[in-house]
Amino acid sequence: MVFGPILSNIGKHVSLEADEIAFFTSLLQYREISKKEFLLKEGQLCRTISYVETGALRAFHLSPDGKDSTIMFAITDWWITDMYCFVMEQPAMQNIVAIDDSCVWQLKKEDLERLYVRVPKFERFFRIIMQHSYIREQLRVLQNLSLSAEERYDIFLNKYPQVIPYLSQKQIASYLGVTPEFLSTVRRNKAGK
Amino acid sequence: MVFGPILSNIGKHVSLEADEIAFFTSLLQYREISKKEFLLKEGQLCRTISYVETGALRAFHLSPDGKDSTIMFAITDWWITDMYCFVMEQPAMQNIVAIDDSCVWQLKKEDLERLYVRVPKFERFFRIIMQHSYIREQLRVLQNLSLSAEERYDIFLNKYPQVIPYLSQKQIASYLGVTPEFLSTVRRNKAGK
DNA sequence: CGTCTATTTGAATGTACTCAAAAGCGGTGG
DNA sequence: CCACCGCTTTTGAGTACATTCAAATAGACG
User: Fold this and answer.
1) Which chain B positions have a beta carbon within 8 Å of A88's beta carbon?
2) Which nt has its C1' nearest the CA of A170?
3) What is the pLDDT of residues A31-48, one digit of tens each?
4) Nearest chain A Cα to B93, which residue?
5) Disruptive mutation site among B114, B122, B127 for chain A (greatest number of A CBs within 10 Å)
6) Based on the number of CB atoms within 10 Å of its own CB, is A174 exposed (0-12), middle (13-18) or buried (19 or more)?
7) Cα distance between residue A173 and residue A176, in whole Å
8) How many domains, chain A?
9) Of B83, B120, B135, which is closest to A138 when you measure between CB atoms?
10) Model's pTM, two decimal places?
11) Considering the domain boundaries, does residue A181 fall inside one?
């Protein structure tokens, strides 16, 4: 059943009736993205939210001086969008790129709004998803404020082991907020322990 | 009308009927907190979410080595809780303290769950609140990754001007993730510009 | 195989921290 | 009302963490 993974993701938090499933799935658009292809580029409008069925994506921001900062990674069974742009209907601050061949289900903003009205369980579902996202980001802020690069690196490895296989050290460095060169010396120092 | 401020806060995102208002307000508990008093201490369970009617609060974390990191400030018309602890029912990682005499309306977790069931509009309301909180934290992560302390300081001053009157530089430093001494030299350098 | 990018290494630099001391400021009690 | 106490802020010297730049090495991919 093609909708299996996304429905089971939603089933973690709400139970849908057959007609609700039918309506929901009728709104979904399937999309395949090959490695290095962009789902969103800075400056565009971000009209969709995506559920990652397989593969891996990276959301990042480029500073005017060219510095690359990774906002999040999303692998199988995660949701991803530029939430600011999606909600506020402003030009995107983020780029979203596939870091491996990926398959996603996309939901357009206007369809999501219709879905909220017709199936209020989705308000609950996304309330819970947003709550978890908020908690996750708040924890990351706290770690960025209070921990050293080495500690953040250790935590990242332990917290997201499924993501590591997709990532270069450069990308991990960009997530941690350090240069690739410095992450390299952090690893060298750790190895000597 | 005592419930005016909190109802108008909710009215920004959903419209309530008279009976819904009656049920909602019956769940609220009023609480006055004097300056320096704690609403939550690390290690406790965080059973409530609070709407700040007047005053100002600060949520912070203390590292084992004593380092103070400010997670958020909340002033009039903001909501605050240790969301991780509130949702996961784990011991709090945060302290929440009044930085001015404050009045809050508190909602217990079990009452909020009842409210979600009886008045699903509150799922929508908190979905929107959580969405905004997520966006805010994600932006803060990005700024911590990509900007210098001076840039973060400027942005903070511009973004939360209403909060500044309540804050010492030490508290601002703790929010920015720098030492008070360093914030002082940042300010000195800016003054010379 | 060759090219392109990632990773490592090292030297020089810069940003932010620690520690210590002085100055400023606010609140409290005599 | 003023003096004192405690806390915040400033300042400076020395240090540590992280960056920049450059070059060498290693890996990935067509």
Assistant:
1) 135
2) C6
3) 999 999 999 999 999 999
4) A139
5) B127
6) buried
7) 5
8) 1
9) B83
10) 0.95
11) no
Indicate whether A34 belongs to any domain.
yes
* Tens digits of residue pLDDT in B22-72: 999 999 999 999 999 999 999 999 999 999 999 999 999 999 888 999 999
User: How far from B99 is each of A50, A127, B183, CA to CA, in Å?
Assistant: 41, 30, 20
**B71 domain-assigned:** yes
Range of the domain at B32: 4-120
| CA B14 to the chain's CA centroid | 21
| Residue B149: alpha-carbon gap to chain centroid | 22
In A, minimum Cα distance to B134 occurs at A134
B129: in domain: no
Task: Give the burial class of A87: count Cβ atoms within 10 A of its Cβ; 0-12 exposed, 13-18 middle, 19 or more buried.
Answer: middle
Q: What is the pLDDT of residues B65-106, one digit of tens each?
A: 889 999 999 999 999 999 999 999 999 999 999 999 999 999
Specify the residue for token string 């079990």. Answer: B110
Task: Tell me how far apart the alpha carbons of residues A140 and B85 are, in angstroms, rounded to a whole number.
Answer: 15
CA torsion sign for B143, B149, B155, B156 is: positive
- In a 3-state reduction of DSSP, which class is residue A32? strand
Nearest nucleotide, C1' to the C-alpha of B191?
D10
In the 3-class helix/strand/coil scheme, how is chain B assigned residue by residue?
A: CCCHHHHHHHHCCCCCCHHHHHHHHHHCEEEEECCCCEEECCCCECCEEEEEEEEEEEEEEECCCCCEEEEEEEECCCEECCHHHHHHCCECCCEEEEEEEEEEEEEEHHHHHHHHHHCCHHHHHHHHHHHHHHHHHHHHHHHHHHCCHHHHHHHHHHHCCCCHHHCCHHHHHHHHCCCHHHHHHHHHHHHCC
Q: What is the DSSP letter of A21?
A: H
Find the CATH number of the domain harbouring A90: 2.60.120.10
The alpha carbon of residue B147 is apart from the nearest alpha carbon of chain A, in Å, by: 9
Dist CA A42 CA A93 (whole Å) = 5
**What is each CA distance from B63 to A146, B37, B84, B144, B186, in whole angstroms?**
7, 20, 17, 19, 24
Reported as a single tens digit per residue, the pLDDT across A120-148 is: 999 999 999 999 999 999 999 999 999 99
Is residue A97 within 8 A of residue A37, CB to CB? The reply is: yes
